[in-house]
Amino acid sequence: MKKPALLLMLMAPLAFAQDWMATSFEHTEVAPDIFMLSGAEGKSSGGNISLLTGDEYVVLIDDSFAPIGPALFEKIEALAGRPADFIINTHAHGDHTGSNQFQAEKGATIVAHDNLRSRMEGDPNQNTGPGALPIITFSEEMTFHVNGQQAYVFHIPTAHTDGDAAILFREANVIASGDLLFRGIFPFIDLDSGGDVTGYKAGMQKLIDMSDDETKFISGHGPVGTRAGIKADLAMLVDAEARVKALVDKGMSKEDIVAANPLSIYHDEYNWAFITTERMTQTLIRSLTTD
Q1: What is the pTM of this model?
Q2: Are 130 and 97 in contact (CB under 8 A)?
């Protein structure tokens, strides 16, 4: 589903959530033993989930909303034959960390960036009990040597949030990006959680520089991506910011810039339920006008 309703649903009542929230998962094998998991039957599981299976360890990257934890656990067991040994959280939003506690109770060890743990620790909606928080954290980078793969985990500062991590599976030439990538849709740059438009662009460029034309990207939201697709998304963001900046530099008010609709050229392709064309414009205005 190209334009899922996503974080907007994080704040929806559970009764409503049952109408859109996935109750099962489908999978795409991106490379041997590396899968992208997403909600089945057109329903949302929040962010995409990556799964590395093998004889040694099972590694999960992100784990969806809390209510979907049991369904995710069943899917992991179906593909891997046993529960996850490790879960790497790519950032602190609840559609990527929501079932931490459930998966930890099933034996998973949670790993994430230092800033992610700090943000979750201070949020009673996320710091819900033993296992909800990562118990292994890192500041810059770390590597998992599992199942014949080097899974290189690295921090990209002040991008989607201030606690972002991405994972490069070196041998498989696959990058799991978390919400550093929204393939083919406007990105959510969470300025209130340490995110930054300049940092987001730099993060996207870093992922492009690490890749080649054969690299496959498991984006935080959207389909599996290619280097060409990620470059197109970055070019859109660079141009979108420039279009808004031209109006800011003219001294136009926020209201007048929104009314001018400078991102209309991208509306048909990139607009979606959570980050609409108007909201993307507002994010860029705020970024350009906040000291």
Answers
A1: 0.93
A2: no
